[in-house]
Design a protein that fits this description.
This is Transcriptional regulator. With about 110 residues, the chain is mainly α. The chain has 6 helices and no strands. It starts with a helix and ends with a helix. About 15% of the residues are buried.
Length: about 110
């Protein structure tokens, strides 16, 4: 199941907050909100404004655009790793890998 944008942003916020050992209350205090609001953001239950995302990124001590880029960073790293693995293989093995992926994702 694909995550909504709100869920993706929430997951990034939660990851950064926990990595920095901050509580939801500490973030809420920084942005002038409640810890329950921060919880809703982290669960993707609240559509938030860009202004609020900027406040959250400031509270997390990260640039807004860096925060927004984090969602695609892991995907890009994974795709690049898969690509690197495939480049080491013959055309026949690459085709086999493609067929396996199609089978796994029911794309046959």
């Amino acid at each position: 199941m694909n995550q909504t944008i709100a869920e993706q942003i929430g997951a990034i916020v939660r990851k950064l907050r926990t990595e920095k050992s901050l509580t939801q209350q500490e973030i809420a205090d920084e942005i002038g909100s409640s810890f329950s609001f921060v919880g809703r953001v982290e669960r993707g239950e609240s559509n938030i404004t860009i202004e609020t995302i900027i406040k959250i990124s400031t509270a997390l001590n990260i640039e807004f655009f860096e925060l927004m880029n984090l969602g695609s960073k892991q995907e890009s790293e994974d795709i690049m790793a898969i690509h690197a693995l495939l480049l080491k293989r013959s055309a026949k093995e690459q085709k086999k890998a493609l067929n396996i992926l199609k089978e796994v994702f029911d794309e046959v």
